[in-house]
Amino acid sequence: MSEKNCRNVRIVEVGPRDGLQNEKKILSTADKFLLVEKLVSCGIKHIEATSFVRAPRIPQLADAEDLFAFINRSPQCEGVHFSALVPNMKGLEAAISADVKEIAVFTATSDAFNLKNINATVEESLQRISLVCAGAKKEGMKIRGYVSTAFGCPYGGDATVASVIKISRDLFHMGAYEVVIGDTIGIATPGKVVNVVRALRDNFSLKNIAMHFHDTGKMAIANTLAAFEEGITVFDASVGGLGGCPYAKSASGNVATEDLLRLFDSL
User: Fold this and answer.
1) Which residues of 69-85 are buried (b: 16+ CB within 10 A; e: fewer)?
2) pTM score > 0.90 for this model?
3) Which residues of 98-111 are buried (b: 16+ CB within 10 A; e: fewer)?
4) Helix 122-138 to helix 89-97 angle, to the nearest 10 degrees?
5) Which are the contacts of 144, defined by CB distance < 8 A and separation ≥ 6?
6) What is 57-115 written as a DSSP string?
């Protein structure tokens, strides 16, 4: 593995959003900002800070606007790329008001998962996303797209590679600069990862593809290495392996940021 390739890996820290959303104890905005500051002090340059969702859905993230007010006032946070998950037009309006520069939009390969998560089928969610993306582009916001349950769904079984490709293409057409392939319930294996990445490479530039692994089956590091060896150089991770999904009870935490750093250091 060349030193050049290792230097080019980009890690997107999702601990403040995906990591905290499954924690039952509600943290104060000040504590969340302290976490963000500590991540920045470690040298992390890409952080998904929160999500602009309705408070009853995910109470932990109800203070998204207040958190971005802290971030936008902080000299320490200058030069760091912050993003936020946005589920709909109301969330986009709040993100615009909070002076967010980059948003993430999301859907899944599974109607069953989407109905549990956002009360919409995959096609209905794509219609919502198209409106959000159009509004974000008018504001000059960058857009990152998530494909959840890309390796399987807790309610709908295995995902097909064709569905991953189709949804990724839709997200790119809507304006996403990068599409993130998510192993939401942590059931991917290196062999499955290789198959999906090769199919993605046949359809898109891998420079615009990222991977998002959960560690339910203790395979996240092996899956990361398999994806890297196939040409993926952007990976989501969560400090301390925090995370999970409120709508996928079998999903454990995300792959730990420090474990990814240890892996790439070893190469």
Assistant:
1) ebbeeeeebeebebbbb
2) yes
3) bebebbbbbbbbbb
4) 30
5) 83, 102, 103, 104, 105, 176, 177, 178, 179, 180
6) T-GGGTTHHHHHHHHHH-GGGTT-EEEEE--SHHHHHHHHHTT-SEEEEEEES-HHHHH
- Three-state DSSP class for residue 123: helix
pLDDT tens profile 19-44: 999 888 999 999 999 999 999 999 99
Tell me the one-letter amino acid at 52.
Answer: F
Tokens of 138: 């008018």
Residue 250's pLDDT band (cuts 50, 70, 90) = low
CB 109 within 8 A of CB 160: yes
Query: Do residues 193 and 217 touch, judged by C-beta distance below 8 A?
Result: no
155 touches 189 (CB < 8 A): no
Residue with tokens 């890996």: 9
pLDDT tens-place string over residues 165-207: 999 999 999 999 999 999 988 999 999 999 999 999 999 999 9
Residue with tokens 């916001």: 141
Among all residues, which ones are annotated catalytic? 245
Dist CA 133 CA 97 (whole Å): 16
Question: How many residues appear in the chain?
Answer: 267
pLDDT of residue 108: 84
